[in-house]
């Protein structure tokens, strides 16, 4: 799958405007970042977005109310990205809703196209520093993803997940699993 020409034009306009305000300090930077994102992001509620956040294909991104997105976060909206209300995203997280196909070993990877699937963070999810969430994943309501985890599969509601690849090690409010405190 190649990107349509309109996507390149829209991205060029977005990156030009967002690039002008991306690293401005608060309070001026916060307001200007919000204005630019409001123009391009599919749906955006009330939130706090820190400087240095990168957004690809903002028209595919939906951000709920009372969301915090910290420095150095990468949001890929090509396949769709939905962040529910009250989510917290620590610095250095990546949400990657597309990847390259590589099934045919006789064809260069870059010519095989891409596949995309939506990422969904339900309400009240907390992603620790450096979490990577891959395409097609849903993280259930109230879940906590530990720093450095790589999420490649759906995470049930109220789970505590960690590791590479991420696995559920506990349920919030229940007896700990594998010695992990909840």
From TrEMBL:
UniProt cross-references to InterPro entries, sorted A to Z: Hexapep, Hexapeptide_acetyltransf, Trimer_LpxA-like_sf
CDD domains referenced in this protein's UniProt entry, alphabetically: LbH_MAT_like
SUPFAM superfamilies: Trimeric LpxA-like enzymes
Secretion signal span: none
Protein name according to UniProt: Acyltransferase
Source species of the chain: Luteimonas terricola
């Amino acid at each position: 799958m190649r990107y349509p020409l309109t996507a390149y034009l829209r991205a060029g306009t977005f990156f030009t405007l967002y690039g002008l305000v991306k690293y401005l300090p608060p309070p001026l930077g916060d307001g200007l970042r919000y204005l630019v994102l409001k123009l391009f992001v599919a749906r955006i509620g009330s939130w706090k977005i820190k400087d240095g956040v990168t957004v690809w294909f903002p028209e595919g991104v939906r951000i709920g109310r009372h969301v915090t997105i910290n420095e150095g976060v990468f949001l890929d909206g090509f396949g769709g990205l939905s962040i529910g209300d009250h989510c917290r995203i620590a610095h250095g997280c990546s949400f990657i809703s597309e990847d390259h196909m590589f099934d045919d070993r006789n064809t260069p990877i870059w010519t095989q196209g891409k596949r995309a699937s939506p990422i969904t963070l339900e309400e009240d999810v907390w992603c620790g520093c450096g979490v990577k969430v891959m395409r097609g994943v849903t993280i259930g309501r109230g879940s906590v993803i530990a720093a450095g985890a790589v999420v490649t599969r759906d995470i049930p509601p109220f789970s505590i997940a960690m590791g590479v690849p991420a696995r559920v090690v506990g349920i919030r409010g229940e007896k700990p699993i594998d010695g992990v405190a909840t």
